[in-house]
Design brief:
heterodimer; A: 275 residues; mainly alpha; 0% strand; B: 296 residues; 2 domains; two-stranded antiparallel ribbon; 13 helices; 1% strand
Chain lengths: 275, 296
């Protein structure tokens, strides 16, 4: 027995654990740094102090003084929730439609939808900016929400997952006299709950963390999102890093919470693309 | 009767089908297809602000003679060529180490390594900026361990600024790619490994000649997505280095942003630069398509 354990714990195992421990530490360290930083003043942070300080309340107070935290959080939440609901609605309906009702012209259009996945945002932003400006939507939240509503990736994701939706369920519902939209609403939606959860996480993360497009279309401070606010706090000539750390924690808590509450769906959503 | 009914049913199905897909298609037309065609047209326009005129290939000539564009292209390609291979290599190694089912604290390791994916690109860039200052925690640690004698100018030296961007992206995305590999490895039949182990093939050889060939499609997929992502690099450089020092971390996306929103807008030229990215992405996607077809 002893001998067995001894042989098992080989040099290779030692290397494995050492390597993984170092990698895990490097992965987590910036999070620890963020929490420690929130308790220190700016000078200590730039000097690399890695112990807890007593500045937490000072930093929080000064963050709330500089930023209308409630309003900024409301802006981010409002944009994110509206984006999630509308994107999931429109894109899941389309993904289901493409898979269940097949026809040649629709297959061609679906190929087009997939091709748009290759379009980099940089190539869209100038015409989008001009269109949004012409529509008088600059400096509104609608300008942020509208362009992302039909997401090619989410359509693709729902079509892939719909392949696993049993056709017998549809047939049975039809025999019972349900209309197509009723089948979608009362049968498909509840059955595909986990697909919706995974897609929700994808859209939530993208929307909450969105930076470039809001940076372009939002100008007034009272409309800005938390991501924009922490970016502008940190890009000051002499940033107050204690305040920046508090802001970063505030910006990260919602995504961290979703990750820990829905870890399985989170990973499923990330992997969605290769299934 | 049956043919008429089938026809009716077919038409009915067709109309319902269109009702399901039309909202999404209309939105994509407005916010994707129309803008991408418009920016193609724009790329043939020259001039600044609202005064523009048709310039033919003037913008392409300007590209070839624009040292800042060439620098941005070079930087973006450098990030790609160095960062993507390092990250994919690291991710494969970590995935294969984590794939052992008897590994102690396996779930903890996996969660920890995946955790960077949860942060926003802006948030982690800010954290890295605060860590990599001249007196910052990273330099202090490196000097304490004795790796370097003098602090490194991560944000002030062109070479180290590039390195910092590469380190940052690697930190953020390695765990993300690892998850793909881990899930692909778990789908590989364990008996193949068992047979190889019995034949006395070392772990390293098993990785090189068994695992990696079987994971080719996933590796290809992650390489292409990472490449497309890096081509669009913006949030990190804008928050960490603002493209500096002396444009050493300027990327194509940041240059387009500067051309459009920082300087006197020159939409036409910015659109031309953006089509350089489109062009590279299309080539890459085509290559991926060719390789994955050849396999079948």
């Amino acid at each position: 027995m002893m001998k067995n354990i001894f042989i098992r714990f080989s040099f290779a195992d030692l290397f494995t654990y050492l390597f993984l421990a170092v990698m895990a530490f490097l992965s987590i360290f910036p999070f620890i740094w963020m929490v420690i930083g929130a308790t220190n003043n700016s000078i200590d942070i730039t000097k690399g102090k890695i112990s807890f300080g007593d500045q937490l309340w000072v930093n929080i107070a000064s963050f709330f003084e500089q930023v209308d935290v409630g309003l900024i959080f409301w802006n981010s939440s409002k944009i994110t929730i509206i984006t999630c609901v509308l994107t999931l609605g429109i894109s899941s309906v389309a993904g289901y439609g493409f898979e269940v009702f097949r026809s040649k012209p629709r297959e061609r259009l679906y190929t087009m939808v997939l091709l748009t996945l290759m379009i980099p945002f940089a190539a869209l932003m100038i015409p989008l900016f001009i269109s949004i400006a012409k529509a008088g939507l600059i400096n509104t939240h609608a300008a942020i929400i509208l362009p992302g509503l039909a997401s090619a990736f989410i359509i693709f994701y729902f079509r892939q997952c719909t392949k696993a939706f049993p056709p017998e369920l549809r047939d049975a519902a039809k025999v019972d006299g349900l209309k197509e939209w009723q089948i979608f609403l009362y049968i498909y939606l509840p059955v595909m709950k986990s697909t919706y959860a995974a897609a929700f996480i994808i859209v939530f993360m993208a929307s909450w963390n969105n930076y470039l497009w809001p940076l372009i279309v939002l100008q007034s401070n009272e409309l800005k999102t938390i991501t924009l606010v922490i970016s502008s706090l940190a890009s000051a000539y002499y940033p107050d890093y204690g305040v920046v750390m508090v802001g970063t924690i505030f910006a990260t808590i919602p995504t961290l919470a979703i990750f820990f509450l829905m870890q399985r769906q989170f990973v499923q959503g990330m992997l969605g693309a290769v299934k | 009767m049956s043919s008429k009914r089938a026809e009716q049913l077919g038409r009915y199905k067709n109309i319902t089908g269109w009702m399901f897909v039309t909202p999404a298609l209309v939105l994509m037309g407005i916010f994707m297809i129309y803008p991408i065609l418009w920016s193609l047209w724009m790329s043939f326009q020259t001039g600044k602000g609202v005064r523009t005129k048709f310039g033919g290939f003037d913008n392409i000539v300007r590209l070839a003679n624009d040292p800042i564009f060439l620098k941005a292209l070079f930087n973006t390609m450098t990030f790609l060529a160095i960062q993507v291979p390092i990250m994919i290599f690291l991710a494969i190694i970590m995935a294969s180490l984590l794939n052992k089912s008897n590994l102690w604290a396996r779930g903890w390791f996996r969660t920890a390594i995946f955790l960077p994916c949860v942060t926003s690109l802006v948030a982690y860039s800010i954290l890295f900026k605060s860590m990599f200052g001249i007196d910052g925690v990273v330099n202090q640690t490196l000097m304490f361990i004795g790796i370097v004698d003098d602090p490194i100018g991560w944000l002030t030296d062109p070479f180290w600024a590039k390195t910092l961007i590469i380190i940052s992206i690697t930190w953020r995305w390695t765990g993300y790619n690892m998850i793909f590999y881990l899930s692909a490895m778990q789908n590989i039949d364990a008996s193949i490994y068992e047979a190889a182990r019995i034949d006395g093939i070392s772990a390293w050889r098993r990785l090189i000649s068994l695992t990696i060939p079987m994971m080719k499609p996933v590796i290809l997929f992650t390489t292409v997505t990472s490449t497309i992502g890096t081509l669009q690099l913006f949030d990190e450089v804008n928050n960490l280095t603002q493209g500096g020092p002396s444009d050493s971390t300027l990327t194509l996306s940041l240059y387009i942003f500067n051309l459009t929103f920082k300087f006197m807008p020159s939409y036409g030229y910015a659109a031309t630069v953006s089509y350089v990215i489109v062009f590279i992405v299309v080539i890459l996607a085509f290559l991926q398509f060719r390789v994955s077809r050849d396999r079948k």
